[in-house]
Specification:
By secondary structure, this protein is of the alpha/beta class. It has 2 domains: 11-137 and 310-323, Rossmann fold, CATH 3.40.50; 142-308, Rossmann fold. Helices cover 35% and strands 16% of the residues. The chain contains 11 helices and 12 strands. A 6-stranded parallel β-sheet has the order 2-1-3-4-5-6, with helices on both faces. The chain has a 6-stranded parallel β-sheet with strand order 9-8-7-10-11-12, sandwiched between helices. α4 (105-109) links the parallel β4 and β5 (114-117).
Length: 324
């Protein structure tokens, strides 16, 4: 039995895809840090999938958390499961690309003692006997920034993320109304027609720096299915960027694709919601008029993230669930 905070608990965090194709190594390291805050550094290890078998054999954890996407067919997930069984460890999968890759979920269900899904609406569609919802989070070491005065912020609007079709369409519709503002969009796949967008991938810490330097940071969810044909599930849970930007002290303007976000942040006090592109320029103008109000909103959001939405909190949840 795994006991939260027990000196005998040892956790290995392993990726579910090889690092050569894994764009979320930073999340693996952030979760390792979260477990270390709870259990201590010596009780936690992190490993790429390709070295996980040796890590399990050498470290002998009581819990292995396999984190990521299971869409890569060649990923040796069965070998990871066999290693965990041989060492007597329990095996949890935390899948962070639901619902967009939900059709691959049975691969994890066949191997896991417990499945965590990042998306709440996906939860009831799993058939595993032991499954729960766990949103992604923010990393204190990487994302935490003090809230900067609005007058010290060189940007009016910032967005960082891949150029999924829904994001391109939204920003193309907003472009004309944003022409008088200092706007920065960074990521991959952005079209040249968006004058303020550059195809530059930002490291997680650099993303936090730019968010903390903007009067407003946009949050626009993903809308691109990779393997979601079985039930065609819409996503409901906000992605990690909402928690990361909050911890970075960024006032956020979040596209209201659904209302689950209100379970994590209070609208008007900690974040702002919008559902029409005209509201983006209006929110920037308001941020310029009311700098103290927006700084206070950022402070409240940062406090909420520090109090409930770091990887320490997610590690505590995993330990509690796996001990039940």
């Amino acid at each position: 039995m795994l006991l939260k905070g027990s000196s005998s608990a040892k956790v290995l965090v392993a990726s579910t895809s090889p690092d050569a194709v894994n764009h979320n190594v930073a999340i693996r390291n952030a979760l390792r840090d979260g477990f270390a805050e709870v259990l201590g550094d010596s009780a936690v290890r992190a490993s790429p999938l390709e070295l996980a078998d040796e890590a399990v054999t050498g470290f002998r954890p009581s819990l292995v958390v396999a984190l990521g996407s299971v869409a890569v067919d060649a990923a040796p997930l069965r070998a990871l499961a066999r290693s965990a069984r041989r060492s007597g460890a329990r095996l949890a999968f935390w899948l962070h690309d639901d619902p967009y890759e939900f059709d691959y979920g049975p691969k994890a269900e066949a191997l896991a003692d417990h499945v965590f899904t990042n998306d709440r609406w996906t939860l009831p569609h799993y058939r595993h006997a032991s499954v729960s919802h766990l949103p992604l989070a923010a990393c204190r070491r990487t994302h935490d920034r003090p809230v900067r005065p609005m007058a010290d912020r060189p940007l009016d609007l910032f967005f960082c993320g891949a150029a999924f079709p829904n994001r391109i369409a939204l920003l193309e519709r907003a472009q004309a109304s944003l022409s008088g503002y200092r706007v920065e969009v960074r990521g991959a796949g952005w079209p040249a027609a968006l004058s303020f967008a550059e195809n530059i991938r930002l490291a997680p810490a650099a993303m936090a720096d730019r968010a903390s330097a903007s009067r407003l940071t946009l949050a626009i969810g993903r809308d691109l299915d990779i393997a979601n044909r079985r039930f065609r599930l819409p996503g409901s849970t906000p992605g990690p960027r909402v928690f990361e930007a909050a911890l970075a002290g960024a006032p956020q303007l979040c596209f209201a694709a659904g209302l689950e976000i209100l379970d994590y942040f209070d609208e008007g006090r900690e974040i702002l919601l919008f559902d029409d592109v005209r509201e983006i320029a209006e929110a920037i103008a308001r941020a310029r008029r009311e700098p103290a109000a927006f700084a206070a909103m950022a402070e409240r959001a940062r406090a909420r993230a520090l109090g409930a939405h770091t990887y320490r909190h997610r590690a505590e949840t995993i330990l509690a669930v796996m001990a039940a």
